Amino acid sequence: MRSKGVAGLLFAVIASFTIVPLVTLFARSSGDGWLSVVASPEALWALRNTLLTAAGAAGFAFFVGVPIAVVLERTDVPWARAARVMLTLPSAIPPYVWAMGWVALANPRAGLLNLVLGPGTLDIYGVAGIAFVLGGAGLPLVVLPTSAALARVDSSLEEAARLSGASVWRTLLTVPLPLALPASLSGTALVFLYSASSFGAPYILGVSASPPTPTLTTRMYSEVLMGADGLHRAAVLSAELVVLAVGVLALNAVLSRSNKAALSLSKGFTRRPLPLGRARIVVTATITMIICMIIILPLLAVFLTSLEPNWGQLKGLGFSHWRAVLSNARTVSATVRSIVLSVSAAVLVTGLGLAIAMTRRKWLETMGDAVFALPGTVFALALLVTFSRDVRFIAFEQVAFVVALGNTLTLLLIAYVAKHLAYGIRNLGDGFSQLDPSLAEAARLGGASVGRAFVDAVVPQLRGPLTTALMLTFLTCMTELTVSVLLVPSGSEVLGTLVFELQSYADPGAAAVIACAFVVMVIVMMIGIAAVSRPRRALGAP
Amino acid sequence: MAATVELVGVEKRYGVTPVVRGVSLKVEAGSLLALLGPSGCGKTTTLRLIAGLEQPDAGTISIAARVVDGPGTRVAPEKRGLGMVFQSYAVWPHRSVEQNVAYPLVLQKRSRDEIATRVAEALGWVRLGGLGERMPQQLSGGQLQRVALARALVANPSVLLLDEPLSNLDVSLREELRGEIAALRARLGTTTILVTHDQGEALALADSVAVLRAGVIEQWASPSVTFHEPATAFVASFVGGANVLEGHAESGVFTWGNLRFSLPDELKGISGRGTLAVRPESLEVSVDGDGPRAVLAARLFAGSFVEYRFSVGDAVLRAIGQPIESAQPGALLRLRVLRAWFFATP
User: Fold this and answer.
1) Which neighbouring-strand residues pair with B284?
2) Which terminal residue of chain A has fewer beta carbons within 10 Å of its beta carbon, N or C?
3) Average pLDDT rounded to a whole number, residues B312-334
4) Mean per-residue pLDDT over chain B, rounded
5) Would you place residue A400 in the very low, low, confident or very high pLDDT band (cuts 50, 70, 90)?
6) What's the angle, vertex CA B253, arms to CA B250 and CA B258, rounded to 5?
7) CA distance to partner chain A, nearest, from residue B209 (Å)
8) What does the pLDDT read at residue A534?
9) DSSP assignment of A55-68, as one string?
10) Do residues B259 and B335 make contact, with C-beta atoms less than 8 angstroms apart?
11) How confident is the model at residue A479 (pLDDT cuts 50, 70, 90)?
């Protein structure tokens, strides 16, 4: 069968840039002395920091996100829609931007909040700061699935509790909360994974901490910079991180299975918000405050930083950085490079996603999801180890062709595509499953060839998923740091690594200018995605 | 424990749309009131107002002589001491049958022993003994309905509110549960308010029936009075399914479109414009008797009787009678009004 051949080809192409490098990486890590690497004090320290920051972030996202979702979804709190939209923002903006904002707000010496509260009151560096920033950035991963589960709860379940004698708060605790809990916990597990895999934020907030607080990912980066021996140690640490990730995903799979239980037994579905009464003002104020603290304050701080003539100086604010950055040759070339890479990646991801969706092979989809869930640092390291010149790769005959990829932008592009293939597969897979096959069949019966029917009848129906996949991949690649920082060829920075360089070593003001541009781009793209993914009403439905 | 419920001039609007318009009612302690009407008539809203799930825009509601809604007074639903069975049952899917039923008692901080005893007792009332450990997903629709009923009754509420409790069940189960609710109520003597669009349910269970239309009570009376002496043409049509003919009466003849019916003796004296309400069983169908002729549109066999449908202009006339062999769709048959009510147009 032809589709079998296509599926096989797709598998071979994807596997050679995902499975093969990972196997190589693990072969590399299982060499002599892996135990001594894992058990070394530095590695244990990094593991401890990863576990603490990821658990802290997950806890923060859970204890802040779940109550917010419950209140926004089930009560008559005002502006719930606006708040829900705002709360999708944290995970759309790369975590290092939030970290930059918080460095400006709460670094112990000159943080803006410390200027108000007294020097040294707040210290964003270290485990607690990293956990807080990543927890805030990961908030949507808890809020969105919890809200989705809560939206399926019939109001009469709550009203039955009230008639039984429960107050509004008691009702929220006994009915919607337990019903949404599996979804919340699954989201919390994802925050843990997201935080443990994160690189930029823990680097910015960990390296300058006293004592320095490396996590597994930042430690791996430092090891890679040290050369061949370091590469081996990094490979061992990446195996450790993968074991952690697989454990969390397995837990998540168990949780999402129990989430499938029917949420509502009723037929006539109704939703009426529970009245908060006098508590409405307090609740509204609390939610506004949390949104301000997690979203608005750090973004304002980044903007303010971009206006400061010298970092931490509030006198003489102006656009000098903006002019300097926008006319800087380094910025311009990085921008061009990022745009070319991101557009290519978006097109490839969408095209491959379409091809995979059309084969309707579940295992190909699973493969895409697995790479997406893999920590970016691990994946980049696998490509680095496999395709760098130092490594003899003897399994296949095509070695000569493969080796040439080392230290090129092509390898970076391959990494972008493989890492974000899930965007294409997920969106187009969903799009295909909702497709009405009779429309293409009607085109065929009307005289169209297979290809013509596809273009005329199928593609227009997939416009939403196609656009979403393109924009999402473009957006993520434009701001990508974790993979880029390991794979970017020397002398050809992309925007993510440029921001990282500027923020960490040179000029936070200039970094803030680019970060501001990122934020604007994210917001514009999100509005675009929301516009195309708005469900079109089916014909004949009321 | 049974309490009276009293509504005085209760009004409720959603935005600018009035839903309940000046409803006044009184339910005696221990009796059952049925709120009957078509969908959208405001019956469920009235029940939700009594429950405290909605707040009235005007009027007062009292339960056991205590004002729960009124000028400056609002008692939260959880403080009204009510039991309610929802149309959707609202059995919590994450709690076992026992945990569902025990919930009101847990909130009253009863002792563990007392809760166990009373939950077992309540499950006995609804014949669910032995199913306490089950999760709601493992129950049938009828069983879920019983769980909801046990949960509503377990804390000995002063008033039991039933919102279309039987409408999601199939016919045979509905009959069975209707009997059980009647028996249970007779035993416990709880004041009960039942919302239904099923006139059979209302007439069978209620001590008094309030027929609502567009947020207004059209008639509030005993089931027998409601059935035999409808106060308005709407009540006659909704309770008993009467044909409603708007026309003109003069010297013993009622003219409706092209049809001229001679009126039964007790209505010979009427005259003027008005509405004639004729139950299907009071409209006699014959091949060559008295009365105007109409075209038979459909003939529906219903076992012990046959329903005839005549299309007259835009309207449909329904008649119930014995089978007539020659009566096939398209046939011209004669119609005679045996009994009717006349409501003069004001």
Assistant:
1) B336
2) C
3) 88
4) 92
5) very low
6) 105
7) 24
8) 63
9) HHHHHHHHHHHHHH
10) yes
11) very high
Q: Which residues of chain B does A167 touch, with a Cβ-Cβ cutoff of 8 Å?
A: 76, 78
The confidence score (pLDDT) of residue B132 equals 93
Which residues does chain B have within 8 Å of residue A184's beta carbon, measured at their own beta carbons?
Answer: none
* Chain A residues whose C-beta sits inside 8 Å of any chain B C-beta: 154, 156-157, 159-167, 170, 174-175, 178-179, 261-270, 272
Sheet of B272-278, strand order: B259-262, B253-256, B243-250, B272-278, B341-344
pLDDT at position A506 over 90:
no
Q: What is the pLDDT of residue A1?
A: 42
For the record, the structure tokens of B113 come out as 């022993």
Check whether the bond before B38 is cis (ω within 30° of 0).
no
The whole-angstrom separation of Cα A300 and Cα A290 is 15
Predicted pLDDT at A269? 67
Rounded Cα gap, residues A174 and A74, in angstroms: 13
DSSP conformational letter for B71: T
pLDDT score for A399: 47
Nearest CB to B86 within list A156, A174, A263: A156
Integer angstrom CA distances of residue B44 from A49, A86, B36, B323: 58, 37, 10, 40
User: Does the pLDDT value for residue A402 go beyond 50?
Assistant: no
Strands B5-14 and B58-63: antiparallel
Q: Which long-range contacts (CB under 8 A, 24 or more apart) does A495-499 make?
A: A495/A334, A495/A335, A495/A338, A496/A94, A496/A200, A496/A338, A497/A334, A498/A330, A498/A331, A498/A334, A499/A96, A499/A100
> What's the mean pLDDT in B47-71?
94
Using an 8 Å CB-CB cutoff, list chain A residues near B108.
Answer: 165
A–B interface: beta-carbon pairs under 8 A? 89
| Whole-angstrom distance, CA of residue A96 vs CA of residue A107 | 15
Among residues B57, B61, B73, the alpha carbon closest in space to that of B20 is found at B57
Chain A hits for B76, CB-CB cut-off 8 Å, are 162, 167
Strand positions, DSSP E, A21-176: none
* Complex ipTM > 0.90: no
Q: Quick check: B72 and B232 in contact, CB under 8 A? A: no
Q: Are B225 and B234 in contact (CB under 8 A)?
A: no
Residues found in chain B: 346
Record: contact B90-A266, CB cut-off 8 A: yes
